[in-house]
Write a structure and sequence with these properties.
heterodimer, A: about 290 residues, ABC transporter involved in vitamin B12 uptake, BtuC, two-stranded antiparallel sheet, 2 strands, about 75% helix, disordered C terminus, B: about 220 residues, alpha/beta, Rossmann fold, six-stranded mixed beta sheet, 10 helices, about 45% helix, about 15% strand
Chain lengths: ~290, ~220
C-alpha cells in the first residue's frame, strides 16, 4: 500500500496545482475588494468553454484560442465590476457578494442554454504520454499543468515583489484608504483585479478542460475546490492559496485511496468545515475573522 | 512662502467633516470647494490627491506590511499621470528608480526617521507612523498638505520637532498647510491664520494672537479645553 504513496503525492500535486491557480485567482479579487467572488467558479467554467469555442468552433490554434479566452474573461471581469459592482460598492457588503453570485448564475445559465444536455470532452492540443520515474508515473497532463502553474507563479511573484507596479498592488491590498491618499485610482484598481482574477481563472479553466469533461455545472465544483483551498491555506493569503491548493489535491488523493474513493468527491466540502472549527485562520493566515 | 492655516474648534464642530469634503472622502451636500482655481467638490479622493491636495489621517493611512521606505516610494510611484498602465508598460530607468529611493531616504532622514526606514510601517509607534505618512504625502511636493491632528500622542520632544517640520514645509518648501489640531500651543506657534469652527460654522478667522484675545472664541473653545 505504502509503495503507492509517491504516486499519489505526484498525482495529487498535479490536481493541487490546478486548485492552487483557482484559489489564487479568487484571492486576488478578495484581497483587492474584500468581496468573495461567489461567481468565480462559473468564470473559470466560462473560460474553459471559451477555449473550446475558439478552438474547435472557430478552428483557431490552441494557444491562440487560449489567449483569446483569457482576454475575453479579463474583459468580462472588468466590465462586471464596472457595470454591476461599482454602482453598489458603497452599499452593504452582502449585496456585493449576492451580486457576484448572481453574475455566476447568469453565466451558468448561459452555458446551460447552449450546452445544457451535453458533456464535452475537449481534445488535448498535445499527445498524452507517460514518463516513468522509478515506479512513479507522470503524465504529460501532469507536466503541462505543473509546468504552467509554476511558470505563472514565478511570474506573479516577480511582478509583486520586484516591480514598482507590484509594490503599488501590494500597497492597495493592504490599505485602500492609503492607496487613495497617494493618488491611486482605487475603483479602477478593483476593476483591473476583477479582470485579472477572471483571466487567471480562465487559465485555470483551460487546464481544467485537459483533465475533466466540460458541463455547465463545472463552476459549482470549481468554486467549492477554490474556496476549500483558500480556507485551508488561510483566507486572503496569496501564498496560502497556493499551498492550500496543493495540499488539498494531495489530501483528496490520499483519502480517496487509503480510506474510500468517495473522499475524492467530498474532501473539498469537509476541509472548510474542519479548518473553520479547528484553525479558522487556516495554515498560513493571520486574521481569524474575515468579512464574506 | 505658503500659509499655515489651523482649524480649531470643539469636538463635533465639523473640522474632520470639512477635511473629508476637501479630500473627497465625503461628497459635500452643497456649496463649492475650489483648489487652485478649479472646482473639486465631487471629485474622488485619488483625483484630488493627484491634483496636489494631500491629506494625512490620524491613523490607518499607511500600508502596514510595507516598510517605511516602501511606503514613501509607493507614494512616489503612484504619482500623477503614470497610472497602472504607465507602471506596467512604462519604462523606468534604473537611474530614475535609484534617485526615487535616494529621495525617499533623504526625506525620511530630514524628519529624523532614517533609522526606521527598513521597518514595517505596522510595527512603528503611532507618532512614527504619522511622521512617515507626512513624509509620504510631501514626497511628491504637493502644493497643499492637510494634516489631521498630527500631534496626537506625540511626546513633547517629538511635538517640538513636528512644529519645526511644519514651519519648514511652509517657509522653505512653499507647501500650504491646513491643520486640524487640539494642541493649542502648537497651533499658536505655527499658524499664520486660525479658523475657529463651532457647530459647523466659522466663528473666527484671524491671526493667532487675535484669536487668543477673542473672548467669544475663548468661551466657545479654549475655555473647555
Amino acid at each position: 500500500m505504502l509503495a503507492l504513496l509517491p504516486q499519489l503525492v505526484v498525482s495529487g500535486t498535479s490536481t493541487g496545482m490546478l486548485y492552487a491557480l483557482i484559489a489564487l485567482s479568487m484571492t486576488v479579487v478578495y484581497r483587492a475588494t474584500t468581496v468573495v467572488n461567489f461567481g468565480h467558479g462559473d468564470m473559470v467554467a466560462a473560460g474553459a468553454y471559451a477555449v473550446f469555442v475558439f478552438g474547435l468552433g472557430f478552428g483557431l490554434p490552441f494557444l491562440v484560442a487560449m489567449a483569446l479566452a483569457i482576454a475575453l474573461l479579463f474583459a468580462a471581469g472588468f466590465a462586471a465590476q464596472r457595470m454591476l459592482l461599482q454602482p453598489i460598492v458603497a452599499g452593504p457588503h452582502l449585496s456585493l457578494a449576492m451580486m457576484a453570485l448572481a453574475i455566476g448564475y447568469t453565466l451558468r445559465g448561459a452555458l446551460r442554454l447552449q450546452w445544457g444536455n451535453e458533456t464535452i470532452n475537449p481534445s488535448r492540443p498535445y499527445p498524452q504520454d507517460v514518463y516513468l520515474f522509478g515506479n512513479v508515473v507522470v503524465t504529460t497532463d501532469d507536466a503541462v499543468i505543473c509546468g504552467s502553474v509554476l511558470l505563472l507563479l514565478a511570474a506573479l511573484f516577480l511582478l509583486l515583489q520586484v516591480t514598482p507596479l507590484g509594490k503599488v498592488i501590494q500597497a492597495t491590498f493592504q490599505s485602500q484608504r492609503g492607496a487613495a491618499l497617494v493618488g491611486i485610482n482605487v475603483p479602477l484598481f478593483h476593476a483591473l483585479m476583477w479582470g485579472g482574477g477572471a483571466a487567471l481563472g480562465a487559465l485555470g479553466g483551460v487546464m481544467l478542460s485537459l483533465i475533466t469533461p466540460l458541463t455547465p455545472d463545472l463552476g459549482q465544483w470549481t468554486l467549492v475546490q477554490g474556496f476549500a483551498a483558500m480556507t485551508l491555506g488561510g483566507f486572503g493569503s496569496l501564498g496560502g492559496a497556493v499551498a492550500g491548493g496543493i495540499l488539498l489535491g494531495i489530501t483528496e488523493k490520499l483519502l480517496g485511496f487509503y480510506v474510500n474513493t468517495v473522499f475524492i468527491e467530498i474532501t473539498g466540502y469537509l476541509v472548510p468545515i474542519l479548518v473553520l472549527m479547528l484553525r479558522p485562520q487556516g495554515l498560513f493566515g493571520r486574521r481569524a475573522v474575515v468579512r464574506v | 512662502m505658503a500659509e499655515i492655516c489651523a482649524l480649531i474648534g470643539p469636538n463635533g464642530a465639523g473640522k474632520t467633516t470639512l477635511f473629508n469634503a476637501v479630500s473627497g472622502n465625503v461628497v459635500a451636500d452643497g456649496g463649492s470647494i475650489r483648489f487652485r482655481g478649479e472646482e473639486i467638490a465631487g471629485l474622488t479622493p485619488h483625483e484630488i490627491s493627484a491634483r496636489g491636495a494631500r491629506r494625512t489621517f490620524q491613523n490607518g493611512g499607511l500600508f502596514p506590511e510595507l516598510t517605511a521606505l516602501e511606503n514613501v516610494l509607493v507614494g512616489l510611484h503612484a504619482q500623477v499621470g503614470s497610472g497602472f498602465f504607465g507602471l506596467l508598460f512604462g519604462r523606468r530607468s534604473a537611474a530614475a528608480e535609484a534617485s526615487a529611493t535616494m529621495r525617499a531616504r533623504e526625506l525620511l532622514s530630514t524628519m529624523g526617521l532614517a533609522h526606521i526606514a527598513e521597518q514595517k510601517a505596522g510595527a512603528l509607534s503611532g507618532g512614527q507612523q504619522r511622521m512617515v505618512e507626512i513624509v509620504r504625502a510631501l514626497a511628491t511636493n504637493p502644493p497643499l498638505l492637510l494634516l489631521d491632528e498630527p500631534a496626537v500622542g506625540l511626546a513633547p520632544a517629538a511635538r517640538q520637532q513636528l512644529t519645526s517640520v511644519i514651519r519648514n514645509l511652509a517657509r522653505t518648501r512653499n507647501i500650504g498647510i491646513l491643520l486640524i489640531e487640539h494642541a493649542i500651543e502648537l497651533v499658536m506657534s505655527v499658524a499664520d491664520r486660525v479658523i475657529v469652527l463651532n457647530d459647523g460654522r466659522k466663528v473666527a478667522d484671524a491671526p493667532p494672537e487675535q484669536v487668543r484675545a477673542d473672548r467669544a472664541v475663548l468661551e466657545a473653545y479654549l475655555g473647555h479645553a
